[in-house]
Amino acid sequence: MFKNIKNKTVTCAEMKVLEKTADAAGLSYYQMMENAGTAAFNEILKNIPGPIREIRASVLCGKGNNGGDGFVVARLLNESGARVTVFLAEGSPVTEDAITNFDLLKKQNINIIDIFSSGGNCNDSSPEEKIPQEVLSCLKNSHIIIDSIYGTGFRGRLRPSSEALINAVNNASAEGALIFSLDIPSGLPGDSDKNQTDFGTCINASFTIVFHAKKTVHNNKTALLTMGSLIVADIGIYDAIGKG
After folding, report:
1. Is the separation of the CB atoms in 152 and 190 below 8 Å?
2. pTM score
3. How far is CA 240 from CA 18, 81, 235, in A?
4. Positive or negative CA dihedral for 116, 208, 33, 65?
5. How far apart (Å, rounded) are the C-alpha atoms in residues 238 and 197?
């Protein structure tokens, strides 16, 4: 199963097995998160539209491990001189490693906004009314937006609040912001069948930075239309468990 994994596609369940195997081999889940965030940061640096110190970045983080990857990216962007705002898309993180990285982030001089604790009304009819104006203004003025809301664990359809936020991000993209999705554009299920065409609202990424190996959704022609340029990034799993 693990041979030449860099050249293969894995299901989300297989990815969990790979992570568990790597952890048992000495590559901790925390280090995998750090590696994923660092790999994403390095790919972002290759594609930013100007010097890092002139970049305004918005990082949208969910409450799980994909959000934790985003916290790592936000920390590294901030340390490199970018002007960073972190948005909590679903409140505070709930997984152990994401909480650890969030605590590290809070020690930095960085703006952190809990979106739906700041006045967003998710029952209104338009995305601009659902998302606080502070958030909309920041997204529209960002050079880059990091999408780390949902990863391989996403199933089903978006809640109205998440759909409104993703629509706002896509509107910012239409105005010129570059969107970097971590692993999978939020709103897409990682295990979608290659022939599925009935996706709901999702991030329209400029770049999708895939961790370790492509998931089945990355081979779906309809889903690929929302992914922009696809980049597969090494996060250390192959070296931890792999044999050529």
Report:
1. yes
2. 0.92
3. 10, 32, 10
4. positive
5. 32
